[in-house]
């Protein structure tokens, strides 16, 4: 039986009850709330031939930096592919299959074609937005969201999430005032939209308004912290505002109480932890005990061969922990990465030189670190992530330059030897 979802898209195999569960799952996913996977599974049980319920479940898996989660979507795709579906649904499955084949550009092309025909397909927009973010496709991100906006209006279910996606894309291209306006518009319609609160954090970070960022995140913690997929990342943003104010103790308190309290093994959480500790390290504060725990948590991802953005953050942990053995293992794994793959290409151009720069910085070879990092800026966005996240490389470059300009004082024994040599 064919039914129509809340945005006018035809869906196959859904009962009314299953479609209601699917809409709740999609809203949770687009608002970055937890439980979307549980609701999608419930929709499948209610209507086992509901193709879009499987597509949603698959996207929740493939839009990840963890290859194990991504690959687990194969069985979901196989179930969906065995079901009858309309042209739009088949285009979704083609996009998911392309991601599983490591053809992200092809997946984005499928989703772009889909959106050209069905601009109110919220799941397609959500998925391609996530893939643009993962691949650092800033131009594609803004173009795709802006392209569908004329088909949307206030009152259409999901519109606040579309506004939040547009706001994030605007922030990433430097349109900070417009981004803030869009985020506030999204929040006026849905104050619990965690991704719109996330955009506000980025706007405050990009405009160097740490006080405003702290005030906003603290005042709205009830909206972005409980039962969201962005909770750890929100605490990371809060800690960054403290670091901007040179309040490293407050940042480390958030690291201990929020970022690493549960010792999460989720790759996104590990990325936030590495980035935060490294920034504290750049402020001259020793956090070695924390580094050891984090390096252990990254160990199982050394051979992922999947995401250069993750590789860089794993290297931050290994260098921070002074774990030369693991750092070398990761370097060798990247050096032997297959260059014909998506990961191989980003490794060759970005991941490997960035990781070698971090290793050089860790051992005090600032000349090499500067040379490697200085070659990255024009294409560093292809690592994926946001400007705020990739800024860790810029901060490292600046730190290396400062160390070369102002060398640390030599140990007292060395200074004595130098003075004796001058007097003799």
Strand arrangement, major sheet: 1-2
Share of helical residues: over 70%
Total E-strand runs: 2
Secondary-structure element pattern, one letter each: EEHHHHHHHHHHHHHHHHHHHHHHHH
Sum up the overall morphology in one term. globular
Distance between the termini: 97 Å
**Average pLDDT reading:** 94
* Structural domains: how many: 3
**Low-confidence residue ranges:** none
Helix- and strand-based class? mainly alpha
Largest sheet: 2 strands, antiparallel
Number of helices: 24
Strand content: under 5%
Give me the Rg, rounded.
23 Å
Q: How would you explain this protein's 3D organization?
A:
- There is one protein chain.
- The chain is an all-alpha fold.
- The chain folds into three domains: 1-144, Serine Threonine Protein Phosphatase 5, Tetratricopeptide repeat; 152-262, Tetratricopeptide repeat domain (Serine Threonine Protein Phosphatase 5, Tetratricopeptide repeat, Alpha Horseshoe); 277-424.
- It is 71% helix and 1% strand.
- Helix 9 packs antiparallel against helix 10 (159-172), helix 17 (267-282) packs parallel to helix 23 and helix 20 (324-335) packs antiparallel against helix 21.
- The longest helix has 21 residues, at 342-362.
- It is globular and about 70 Å long.
- It starts with a strand and ends with a helix.
- The model has no long low-confidence stretch (mean pLDDT 94).
